[in-house]
Amino acid sequence: MRLVLSGGWFGEEGLYSCEVKEVIYPQSVEELKDFDGFVILSYELGGRFLELNLKETPLPKIVALKLSQPMRFEAEPKAVHLEPIGMSLSELEFKERVDKVKGYIERGDVYQINLSTKIDFSLQGKPSDLFLQFWERQPVPYGFLLELDDLFVMSGSMELFLEKRGKIICSKPIKGTGKSPDTILASEKERAENLMITDMVRNDIGRVARTGSVRVAELFKVEEYETLCQMHSTVEGETGENFPRIIRETFPPASVTGAPKHRAVQVIDELEPHPRGYYCGAAGFVEADGDFTLSVLIRTAFGGGSELSYFAGCGIVWDSDPDREWKELLLKTKAFYP
């Protein structure tokens, strides 16, 4: 059992590897109050926090790892082959649901919905080699591969859900995807989408922050990656709350749900035929002193044996074009399945 992860978690370049010394499956986030290690939080925990009955996988909702010290990791990936074997939403079905989302928006139920599809694959080769190819195509700060006896989870995420250092808590929600910075910045739709989610994150952090301390430190910043560009904003605040309370008030991440969050999660569960599992959840390091760094589990796959599922989604707003949203979804699969 091991965890291979991007040096970005430590402010370094390249990849690192940790031996998994112990795996724990807590039943609630309260059990993580004084934990020190790496955790994965399933999106499905959001159903508990929002008091909603969501579709669920049989996978553990929380995975907590005690690790050895990270060591530099270098390896040449061997050949692997991915064979698509199905999608939870085809192109036609996805576009039909985009129109349904716009119907909800027209009626005033929601302002934005993050809509996704699940792509199932058969894997010929090792998950570690698949992850290395994924990483080489698109290095990101919050990438990782967790290999357990009967489960593997890999993520090529570039999105910071929450980071707490001392009293300062920070989030960098991503909304806005394109092939170039100019394309994203010139799009009113992408900027409006980003602004809506930034406001949601301000609200979420405001639930655990000192009154008057929440601020938008960056707005509409575009980062370039190998296969696409993404726009994010940065929200900060001051808090004295502990890890469980912060997670209960902010999870699941706003950027992968929609606005308003409670209704958006209900609509997502209605329109998506698949449970999300770890996709759109969070993962990262928590420390016994209360500090932590969590990514949003976008660009994420999980499975066991020779089968795995990868997910991709888009933020849908009133002026979303179904054809363009489908193209954006495919763009988000390029690093994983060229």
Automatic annotation (TrEMBL):
InterPro entries membership: ADC_synthase, Anth_synth_I-like, Chorismate_C
Span of domain Chorismate-utilising enzyme C-terminal: 92-332
Pfam families hit by this protein: Chorismate_bind
Gene Ontology BP term (one): L-tryptophan biosynthetic process
GO molecular function: 4-amino-4-deoxychorismate synthase activity
Source species, domain of life: Bacteria
Name of the protein described by the UniProt record: Para-aminobenzoate synthetase component 1
